[in-house]
Every structure is written in C-alpha cells, then in structure tokens.
Design goal:
The complex is a heterodimer. By secondary structure, chain A is α/β, with parallel strands linked by helices. Helices cover 37% and strands 18% of the residues of chain A. Chain A has helices at 22-36, 54-58, 63-71, 87-100, 120-128, 143-158, 162-176, 190-195, 199-202, 265-278, 295-304, 313-318, 335-339, 343-359, and strands at residues 4-11, 46-50, 77-81, 107-114, 205-207, 210-211, 220-229, 241-250, 287-289, 373-380, 385-393. In chain A, a hairpin with a 4-residue loop joins strand 10 (373-380) and strand 11 (385-393). The radius of gyration of chain A is 19 Å and the shape is globular. Chain B is mainly β. Chain B is built from 1 helix and 8 strands; from the N terminus they run E-E-E-E-E-E-E-E-H. Chain B has one helix at residues 119-122; strands at residues 8-11, 17-18, 33-36, 42-50, 62-69, 74-79, 92-103, 106-115. The longest helix of chain B is centred in the C-terminal third of the chain and has 4 residues, at 119-122. Classes of the chains: A alpha/beta, B mainly beta. At the A-B interface, helix 5, helix 6 and strand 5 of A face strand 4, strand 5, strand 6, strand 7 and strand 8 of B.
Chain lengths: 396, 125
C-alpha cells in the first residue's frame, strides 16, 4: 500500500447560502481545493462526492456525475458516498484506499449539503430518517432527542454538568467567531446562556437536558480535498499532509440495543485503529476536530478516543484543557457547533481544518503552535458508524 | 385497550433478546428466533423532552423514553406526561399501544408509556 498525502484543501464559508445551489457549493469548494493543489487546469483520475440528502432535499440524485460535468473532469471515475453525517469521512476513506492501492494517482473528494432551503421541521425530519424506521423514527425522535437521552445517561453515570456543557459551547463559539468559514460567528457568555435570569429565553431547551446552545446549527456548505501518493508530491509547492492513520467502526442501529448506551464503542475502535496505523498514542495528538453536533459529544468523544479517562472529559473542558493553548486543543475551528454542520460536508471540513492547522496556515488567534499531528472524528448516525483519521505534517 | 403489537426476537441458540429484528443474532450469529411479546410493566431507562419536532407532528413538544419490560425487552416509546418534572430514571411505567403519529393520513400505532406514581405518592399520607 502506498502512503497517501493531501495536497490540496478548500472550503467555502458555511452558513445560509440562499444564492448558491448544492452543485454551486460543491463546485466552488472543489475548485478551491484543486487550485490549492496546483491542479487548477488539470484533471483527476477519480472523484468521490459525500452527500446525505440531495435526493430528499433537492430532489436531485447522481451528484458525483453532475460535479464532474460542472468541473469538466471527464472522463474521471465518479461515485457518490452516502453514510449519514459520516459521509464526508467515508468519501475520503474511499479516496484514500483508491490511491493507497495504486489504482488512482489523483483523487478529488468533495462533500456538501444544502439544508437551509427547506423549513426547520423538514430538515429535522430529513436527519431523523437515519434512525431505525420502526423502533425509533415513528415515535418522532430526532437527533437532538437521541442526544438528549444520551446526555441524561451520561450525566447520571459520570456526573457531567450543565456548566461543563456550557463551557464547551462558549469555547467553540469563541473560536467560531475567529473562523471566517464558520456559520455562527458570535461569542456567547456563560452568563447569557446559563446564569442570567434571561438565559431561559436566550437558551431554551431543545431536547432536555440539552438547550439551544448545546446544538450545532443547520447549515449549507461544502469542503474538498485532493489526494495523491506521497512519493509523487515530495517537491510540491504546498506542504503535503500525510494521512498517517485511518479507522472505522460500526455499532447497533437502535441505541437501546447497546449493552451500555453511554459506551461509544465505534468511536473507541475507530480511534484505536487510526492510532495503531499511525503508530501514535492519544498523547501525541496536537490538535483534534471532534464531532460536536452536541456539546455532550465533544466531552464523550474526548474520553472515548483516550484524551481523558471516562468521566474526566467534562472536568477537563471546564478546566480549559481543551481550549487553544491547553493540553489538547479541540475544535479550534469552532467545531460543528459554530462552523456549522452541513451533514455531507462535515467530515471533509474537519480534515480541511486539520490540514490548514498542520501547514500552520490559519490565523494566529486560532493556530495551534507547532502542530504536527492531528485527529478527526466523524460520527455517523448516533454513533453507529464512526471514522477517524490521524494526519501528520510531512517534513520537507 | 389495544394489545401491544410489538414483536421482539429471542435467539433460539443463546437466548439473547433483540428488538428490532436482526437476521443474525448479535451474540452468536444464530438465525432462528422465537417471537416474544414484551411482558409486564416497564422501567424507564432514559428520556428527553423534544421541542423542535419533525415534520408530521402538530404539537408543542414530545416526551420520548426508552424502557425495559419485565422480560428484558427494551424499546422506545412516547411518554404520557406534561413535562419531564417528576420523571426519574428507573421509575415504573404502564405501557399501552396507541397511535403515535399520522403518516399519509393514517394512524401509526406504537408504544406509549404512562408514568406510575411512586408508592408514597399513590397512598394517602
């Protein structure tokens, strides 16, 4: 198997993008990544497109073929990858394996989602279609609802507090306010969403015990990367970033069938596989993008990947260990919480952020000093399909 | 009162109870199952109150819970309560089989759980 590098990374700002179609967003992000790779007027061998809902939300299918057409990448091979909210990382995995195997030399991976053109209740229903149709969906459960039930159990078992959840929310929104690609560029304070008498108005419950600012926004957006064998890009203009490790694992569809529903086994397994392949330990990671669709998930994932012991993640967040300059900076992009969560784009956007961090290209206020190794966790379903990547800066 | 029309699956080889259906046992990969019904009252394992409802629900909120029946079947359902105040993990629930949503103009039936008062609340002081 060949070592695979990311030689180009591109995004468009996430948010409400009424003026752009899904295909516009995928095309813009892809062009940014191709230009970044120095392939602006070249083709690629294959294209993988991550998307969860175009068939439902835009009534459009076969979007990988449509993206090749927009970018005149003929006759590149093209596939769409749908794996719920983990579609982005799944598409990168497909590109990684295709290049590592020696079959393709240049692969474009793009992820995108357009969720704001439908009403909130349609978007909520669309995401809820990933739950079990008979055992869960019919009851009206939503992803915030799944996270709410998970939080009840996590609070009961590990003593996670609302104050700790608020700490994650304020940290990530502070970082999002510094990220020009973030959907929500607004600093919030603990007083405004927890302590003040107005907090219940500012921050109403969405799925008890989770409140509005515990949840990511519904976003439009797209992100893309270009993959190539490492030995073909050693003299590249931009520093290549090695995909040093990869892991993926699954768990039961219905949450109640897990022996211990607070145990996110797929997160643990995916991270372990990625660490083993990269020959690193959790303590070697300099910067991490964890899938914080809800604040509780950042805390739980920080424990399940091994940054902290079970039950210590909330305390670590409250102590500032996960902020920029702390023991392990998590979601310095703002995470899903502030950057936004266009579901098909998220896994790719996480990798783009780590690429920029490892190239030391982001603004000083967000840059993790001397970052050499990064981790991403892309969490599909409610933890039933999880992917992890370990990325490494390559010395030139 | 409608009979609870939920079928769970007990592996004939190892006895593991599944709900929903799997084609192979999660424990031993066996393919033969005995169909069983949830039995007795249920115990609340976790719950939430959802305020942002999906398409198809015309109400202010929903309270959703996961419960375990006396014979080990675990399932999700809607909790009949006005708020989550008073709900506690481990409390007893009375299950029923009622319409839980409408799809294409027809009622879809599923589990509902009614919280049972704690003995101290049920008995006069």
């Amino acid at each position: 198997m060949r070592d695979v590098a990311i030689i180009g990374a591109g995004m468009i700002p996430f948010g409400r993008r009424d003026e752009d179609s899904l295909m516009d967003m995928l095309a813009y992000a892809s062009l940014n990544a191709l230009d970044d790779a120095g392939l602006g007027d070249k083709s690629v061998d294959a294209v993988y497109v991550a998307n969860m809902g175009a068939g439902i939300l835009q009534h459009q299918t076969a979007i990988a073929s449509a993206l090749v057409d927009r970018l005149s990448l003929f006759p590149a091979a093209a596939d769409m990858v749908e794996n719920g909210p983990a579609s982005g990382a799944s598409a990168i995995k497909n590109g990684l394996l295709a290049v590592a195997s020696g079959y393709y030399d240049a692969v474009l991976v793009a992820g995108g989602e357009k969720m704001r053109e439908v009403t909130g209740w349609r978007a909520t229903d669309f995401v809820a279609t990933l739950t079990h149709p008979l055992a869960e969906y019919i009851y009206g459960v939503t992803l915030p609802g799944m996270a709410g039930m998970f939080t009840q159990l996590y609070m009961e078992k590990y003593g996670v507090t609302r104050e700790q959840l608020v700490q994650v929310a304020t940290k990530n929104q502070k970082m999002g306010a510094l990220n020009p690609y973030a959907h929500v560029e607004m600093v919030i304070t603990r007083e405004g969403i927890l302590d003040s008498p107005h907090a219940i108005v500012n921050n109403p419950p969405v799925a008890e015990p989770l409140h509005l600012y515990d949840a990511c926004p519904v976003s439009d957006g797209a992100a893309a990367v270009v993959l190539c064998p490492l030995d073909m890009v050693k003299n590249a203009k931009k520093r290549p970033i090695l995909i040093a490790g990869f892991g993926q694992a699954t768990d039961t569809h219905a949450l109640q069938e897990r022996e211990d529903p607070t145990d996110l086994k797929a997160v643990t397994l995916a991270a372990k596989q990625a660490f083993a392949m990269a020959k690193v330990e959790p303590g070697d990671i300099d910067v991490a993008e964890l899938h914080d669709a809800f604040t509780i998930l950042e805390i739980a994932e920080s424990e399940h990947v091994g940054f902290f012991k079970k039950g210590e993640g909330g305390k670590a967040a409250a102590a500032g260990k996960t902020q920029l300059g702390g023991q392990i900076p998590i979601n310095v992009s703002g995470g899903l919480k502030a950057r936004g969560h266009p579901v098909g784009a998220t896994g790719v956007a996480q990798v783009v952020e780590i690429v920029w961090q490892l190239r030391h290209e982001v603004s000083k206020e967000r840059q993790v000093k001397n970052a050499k190794t990064g981790l991403t966790i892309n969490f599909g379903g409610f933890g039933n399909n999880v992917l992890a990547f370990v990325l490494r800066r390559v010395d030139q | 009162m409608n009979e609870i029309d939920l079928v769970a699956y007990k592996c004939k080889r190892c006895g593991r109870i599944h709900y929903p259906y799997h084609d192979r046992c999660m424990n031993c990969k066996g393919r033969e199952f005995e169909e069983i019904k949830p039995e007795g009252d249920a115990k609340l394992l976790t719950f939430t109150q959802i305020f942002n409802l999906p398409w198809g629900f015309d109400q202010r909120f929903l309270i959703i819970g996961v419960a375990e029946f006396e014979n080990g079947v675990k399932a999700m359902g809607q909790v009949k309560a006005d708020s989550v105040n008073g709900l506690k993990l481990g409390m007893h629930l009375k299950p029923s089989w009622e319409p839980v949503r409408a799809q294409n103009g027809e009622s879809v039936y599923g589990l509902k759980f009614e919280p049972e008062p704690e003995p101290s609340e049920a008995l006069p002081a």
